[in-house]
Amino acid sequence: MTSKIRLLLPLALVLLVMSISSSAKAASFDCTKARSSMEKLICSDAELSALDETLAINYTTARDKLSPSAAKVFTTGQLSWLRFHSAYCFVSYDASKADSVQAKRCLVEAYSDRIKEFKATGEMTRGWRTYSVVDSAIKISPNEQSIYTVQRNYVQLDSASSAAQHINRYVAFTDRIKLDEARGSESYVVRLAELSQDWLQKTKQSEVMTGAYPTSGTECGVYALSLERPLRAADLFANASWTLTAKKFAQAHFTSLAATEKDFDLSMLNDYSQFDLLPAAEFSFCITANGFYVDGFVPHVARALDGVTLPWNIFANHLTPYANKEILAIKK
Fold first, then answer.
1. For labelling alongside 302, which of 28, 72, 180, 308 has CA 20 to 30 A away?
2. Which of 128-137, 203-212, 295-304 is the least confident region?
């Protein structure tokens, strides 16, 4: 063996060791200790490894923005997210093992979405710092060749004030996840948005893939800061006759729709019971500067033709002074 070859061998060994060392540290954890399918896939894929590092950095940055109590809740949510995706991304819809391509695609999407949430941590709503909480669960049934998943993602306010805590309870899920279905999925995302100085609107977007028909939609509610509770029908309307006005407008809307849409006729309508709210009932419709949106009038098969927006101006004789003031603020 020539001296030149003898010199090159140690160099090759050094480069090999450096390569192994670099690979072992590419992810946010020690890849030499990788045990789970998720860890092994991350360590074997450069794109996933880079995403894992980015996720870890953004997680730490986001957590450090929060108070100790909020950081604890935030961390619990991240652990739920990790447990869920370490199982979900490695199983197919029939409970069989997912291949590496499918698993990677799932992880890339999940990581990218989660990183965006971390970057949004600390955004302000009415002077309160916000963060998102994840609560997820999965049931894998190999014998039934099925999986069932529930994913919940909801915003919280980082404040110990009584007002913030009331809002947190209003936005959060109070019940524990129950995996009582054999197959399917449920996904819920709850967010807060400022409508006016006094109104915070809660939107709950859902996708439920269980039973014969999949369903999806958005439910709303409004928290009134000055009242320290959710907005009620009586806060908006001074008298019960507003429901008659609402039903009359909705009826005219669907009558017009039936005249122009060949796939729709008035026999599809269930009723107008959505407007039969007691004065003390929560006002659960989505509010905008122009009015509020109501759906649920027709069955699932005609969903594309469902829903109507009721303009505020038709309720001119029904709105309370308080409602008029806040609606005017939304329009500005």
1. 180
2. 295-304
**326, 319 Cβ separation under 8 angstroms:** no
- What are the backbone dihedrals phi and psi of residue 208, each rounded to the nearest 5 degrees, phi first? -120, 115
DSSP run (H or E) holding 135 = strand 128-141
Sheet holding 308-311, edge to edge: 286-287, 291-294, 308-311
Q: How far apart are the first and last CA of the chain?
A: 85
Paired tokens of 215: 């369903």
As a whole number, mean pLDDT of residues 207-215 equals 85
| pLDDT classification of 14: cutoffs 50, 70, 90 | very low
Checking DSSP bridges between strand 215-224 and strand 199-209, what pairing results, if any? antiparallel
pLDDT (0 to 100) of residue 298: 86
Question: What is the amino acid identity at position 313?
Answer: N
In three-state secondary structure terms, 293 is: strand
Tell me how far the alpha carbon of residue 236 is from its chain's centroid: 28
pLDDT at 15: 31
